[in-house]
Amino acid sequence: MQERYEAVIGLEVHVQLLTRSKMFCSCANRYGAEPNSLTCPVCLGLPGALPALNAKAVDMAIAFGLAIGANIREKSRFYRKQYFYPDLPKGYQITQGPVAVVEEGALEIPGDPAVRGVEGNILAGVERAHLEEDSGKSTHESKRSLVDLNRAGVPLLEIVGKPDLRSPKEAYDYLKTLHRLVIALGICDGNMEEGSFRCDANVSVRPKGQDAFGTRVEIKNLNSFRFVRQALDYEVKRHTELIGAGSGPVQETRGWDAGKGETRIQREKAGGADYRYFPEPDLPPLEITRAEIEAIRASMPELPSQRKARFIVSYGLTDYEADMLTQDRPFADYYESSAKLCGNPKQACNWMLGEMSRAINERGGSIETLGVSAEGLAELISMVDSRTINLTTAKETVFPALLAGEGSPGDIVKKRGLAQISDTSAIEAIVEEVLAAHPAQASELRAGNAKLRGFLVGRIMKAGKGKVNPQMVNEILDAKL
Ligand SMILES: [Zn+2]
User: Fold this and answer.
1) What beta strand segments (E) does 134-241 contain?
2) Checking DSSP bridges between strand 155-161 and strand 252-257, what pairing results, if any?
3) Which of 174, 303, 316, 330 has its CA 20 to 30 Å from the CA of residue 252?
4) Strand (E) or helix (H) holding 105
5) What separation in Å is there between the alpha carbon of 89 and the centre of ligand 1?
6) How far is the CA of 151 from the centre of ligand 1 (A)?
């Protein structure tokens, strides 16, 4: 983008809540079941069926609100949002819409120095987060369309971000931070492919220094982090070119075509559609007490930002190290177990960000599929710390064998005869043998010629086939001289 213009981006994210049952009925909230097998009169919208609110979904929304420092509205309610679509069986969606249980929060994300001019974190506002029910899913084939209503009535938290983001990179970081947060809170599995974490983006471009927003375009259904960034890059460039040519974009909804690497128009927006919102008569107003909010606050897990701060203090890590370790929860959990087991948090960090990360990148998958247990890594670190093996042997020989599933580090070291000789009498025998074989050098060293120490230690290491503990060799050599 040219320096003269700036992008204004806000994201709307739909998060499927990890409740066991749906929002207003007891059907299971589960992905991948036989189509239309998880349905009942309530989520099918049959006449006379009455909804009953899932309290767990409300608790999850509150936990999210507390995590972003938002205001939790003690009184909110549900509305009927009317529109017609085949996968919406009732002909309306039950939603909190504008009167949301969570309002006015913020996410701390890294600012983009390319557009801000400075390094550092920024606060990206969240206007509101409201509860609503998901629709079913339509599949369009050449001659027919199929509807699966298993998803109808699944609880959603729609998180509406403020237009505080100034580049596609900031949008990407906002989404990553939000993703990490909802997973850490245990309110969403974060699976973008299965649609449990879905993103729409609003984007406009304006001359730098102008307060008024440019014409806004909405990009729908960005179902991967990469697509969000690519689609926004494309769209910001397109807007900038159109403005530069004197025309400017039109207000419309577009979709991302990943194959062609471009956005394409889906529909023009002629003002806001009339959804004829009215209060849902079958549900009482949603009232939440301070005591309920405080109980949820007390039971909340540690958040990624809190965990990062704790890692810095408790384990003596740098900001960068703590940040890298807390990118995802299983990785951070793994680090913590191995650090505690081996008692060497700094080395555990080095292994996690070095050898372990490299192996994950090379093989694909995650820390959970790598096939090395936290106990295994801790044992390996301990063997280096106790000088059973040296670091080079650990990295070059034992770790690859560990990855290949050859057993525990202890087994591998034993099987391959890699253990350093740390037995005093064995080393003494080798030292005496080498001194006896080189009497001239030994007496010179005794007389104070320190240069000969290297020569003798080298001979001793060689005689010990590189497996003698160097520190012990030096100590024993001193004693013998
Ligand atoms: Zn149901």
Assistant:
1) 137-140, 145-148, 155-161, 197-207, 217-222
2) unpaired
3) 174
4) strand 102-110
5) 12
6) 10
- For the chain, give the mean pLDDT: 91
What pLDDT band is residue 387 in, cutting at 50, 70 and 90? Answer: confident
- For residues 475 and 178, which has the higher predicted lDDT (pLDDT)? 178
Whether the pLDDT of residue 352 is over 90: the answer is: yes
Ion ligand 1: residues, CB within 5 A, are 25, 27, 40, 42-43
Within 10 A of 2 (CB to CB), how many other CB atoms are there?
Answer: 13
Contact 367, 356 (CB under 8 A): yes
Question: What's the pLDDT tens digit per position in 222-251?
Answer: 989 999 999 999 999 999 999 988 888 889
Cα 51 to middle of ligand 1, angstroms: 9
* Domain residue ranges in the chain: 5-290, 302-415, 424-480
Residues 6+ away with beta carbon under 8 Å from 230:
256, 258, 261
CA-CA distance, 276 to 83, in Å (whole number)?
9
Q: 86: Cβ–Cβ under 8 A, 6 or more apart, which residues?
A: 138, 145, 147
Model's pTM, two decimal places?
Answer: 0.78
| C-alpha 158 to ligand 1 mean position (Å) | 21
Ligand 1 mean position to 94 CA, how many Å? Answer: 14
Indicate the CATH number of 424-480 among 2.30.29, 3.40.50, 1.10.10, 1.10.3680.
1.10.10
Q: What is the mean pLDDT of residues 155-179?
A: 96
In this structure, what DSSP letter does residue 421 have? B
* β-strand pairing of 197-207 with 5-16: antiparallel
Distance CA 280, CA 278 (A): 6
Cα of 39 vs centre of ligand 1, distance in Å, is: 4
Q: Is the pLDDT of residue 270 over 70?
A: no
**Where do we find the tokens 């909340």?**
300
pLDDT at 383 over 60: yes
Question: Token pair of 469, please?
Answer: 């503990």
- For the chain, give the longest Cα–Cα distance: 105
SS3 283: coil
Percentage with pLDDT > 90 across the chain:
67
Whole-number Å distance, alpha carbon 24 to ligand 1 midpoint, is 7
Exposed (0-12), middle (13-18) or buried (19+): which is 65, by Cβ within 10 Å?
A: buried
Distance separating alpha carbons of residues 127 and 222, to the nearest angstrom: 20
- The torsion region of residue 144 among left (phi > 0), alpha (psi -120 to 50) and beta comes to beta
Structure tokens at 302: 């540690």
